[in-house]
Amino acid sequence: MSKLYLDQAKVARARQAASDVADSLQEFISERTTVAVERTVLRLYGLDGIDADYVPLPNVVVDHIKEGGELQRGAARFVINAVLQKGLTVQEVGEEVAAGTLDLLELPLLDEATIRNKAFELAQAGIEKIRANRQKRDHYVSTLGEGPRPYIYVIVATGNIYEDVVQAKAAARQGADIIAVIRSTGQSLIDYVPYGATTEGFGGTYATQENFRVMREALDEVGEEIGRYIRLCNYCSGLCMPEIAAMGALERLDVMLNDALYGILFRDINMQRTLVDQNFSRMINSFAGVIINTGEDNYLTTADAVEAAPSVLASQFINEQLALRSGLPEEQMGLGHAFEMSPDLEDGFLLELAQAQMAREIFPKAPLKYMPPTKHMTGNIFKGHVQDTLFNVVGAMTNQGIQLLGMMTEAIHTPLIHDRHIAIEAAKYVFSNMRTLGDEIEYKKDGKIVTRAHEVLENATEMLEDIREIGLLETISRGMFGDVKRTMTGGKGLQGVMMRTEDYFNPFETLLREELGLEAIAR
Questions:
Q1: At the fourth CATH level, which superfamily is domain 32-124?
Q2: Domain D-Lysine 5,6-aminomutase alpha subunit: where (predicted)?
């Protein structure tokens, strides 16, 4: 029974409206592909490395096919045709294209059945690598165990992957359950994935496959030392969203920032590009057993947290429905929200509690990701530590899944090791001492907490029904999320979106659909 006495008919109305919105988008998504989707296909086939000008080989090959006007048919067709005709591996095909010794579009195409059979045969090998990683994670969790929920989630962001490793290991020993390696500033806006281990990021560390491998190895090492599996998180968003999902799946990341609307609203990435990319990226994350984190918390940094609360809930419903259509189960949906109301607001704690408890009740299976106060941190470290403590109290009381710890030095500098230690120590104290407090509490039917939850649900339901009428893309153009307006043809990356031809095929999409029990695409 709902502690907030939520009207379940209204919850069902909201979910149905979000479902209708997602259905209307799926046809739009399924008609299109992007350069990032096609690069992802090649990465899943094992293509990696850079050319003489340091351009990643997936970019070289996809750009080569696109310039020839054939990418809308799918990159796999032309690469696998070359594999068959030249007796090369996918990697060797990429290297020859980069060297200028092979033109994929000059090769006559073999018959369609021959190409497809080989494409699926080689794709199955990539699928099995991801399956093996998921099984290895499951083995670690069953043998080492892991921390109780909410998982304690902390960030490292030195810019140098090897220094990140030092900080990550220290955080794990202090009690962290999830290490998130913050990406270098602006990486989401570059239309390629950097190559190799990196040591010079800005405000964070570049997301590269080698950096993923280095950190995964380090966390496995410290996890075996302390007897607890440590999860690794990175950022599967921006112009390379599905590529990073693939790299994470191949290197056994466990958590990925992956939102349907975040890149549109907060990075001005074209909405068509983002929606197509997120669909494929979530299929990969789902099969890999990765928990996604969505970015609703960001609305509260650009809009007032009290007024914007209904848009947070509405976005959670939409993210849930889009994720389901990518085969992602509720247990892997780390739907986002945040403790971002002004500390000067009287009874703000009650309103925050209402929002968190409401999200917990409406999405009971989801490992909700709860974000700490940032907007109203002032540099007063003592007050900041109190704000973070109240945030941790709400997290404990409402059984959040993932608690991104606040740092008392927020708004001053990137956290140092001792800042992180203090945050983890304080969170562990609250979580242990209040472990079952939520089970002991009932709320007044006519109290401020219940009233607030009902008001937010009512407004979110009305908002979702409005979105269903006008369409999500038009909703975004009107600035209904986070007070940010975007257009269908604006933003970065539109030139990388193409309509699929009737004979388009993506063997990984087909295999993932089969694995995830989604509607099959004919082979």
A1: Ornithine 4,5 aminomutase S component, alpha subunit-like (1.10.8.1000)
A2: 4-510
The answer to whether 91 and 69 have CB atoms below 8 angstroms apart is no
**What's the whole-model pTM score?**
0.96
- Over residues 188-215, the pLDDT tens digits come to 999 999 999 999 999 999 999 999 999 9
Question: Is-same-fold flag (32-124; 148-452)?
Answer: no
Annotated active-site residue in 45, 177, 369, 419 = 369
What is the Cα–Cα distance from 373 to 177, expressed in whole angstroms? 20
Q: Is 399 left (phi over 0), alpha (psi -120 to 50) or beta?
A: left
Q: Which one of 45, 151, 206, 262 is the catalytic residue?
A: 262
111 an active-site residue?
no
Domain residue limits, the chain: 32-124, 148-452
Q: Which of 177, 277, 297, 388 is catalytic?
A: 297
C-alpha 522/C-alpha 279 separation (Å) is 18
Angular region, 55: left φ>0, alpha ψ -120 to 50, beta rest: beta
Give, in words, the CATH class of 148-452.
alpha beta
pLDDT at 426 over 80: yes
Look up 169 and say whether it is catalytic: no
> Residue 172 class from Cβ within 10 Å (0-12 exposed, 13-18 middle, 19+ buried)?
buried
Place of tokens 């606040």: 406
Long-range CB contacts for residues 59-63, cutoff 8 Å, separation at least 24: 59/191, 59/192, 60/94, 60/97, 60/98, 61/93, 61/94, 61/97, 61/98, 61/104, 62/35, 62/38, 63/35
Q: What are 321-339's pLDDT values in tens digits?
A: 999 999 999 999 999 999 9
**Distance (Å, whole) CA 82 – CA 63:** 16
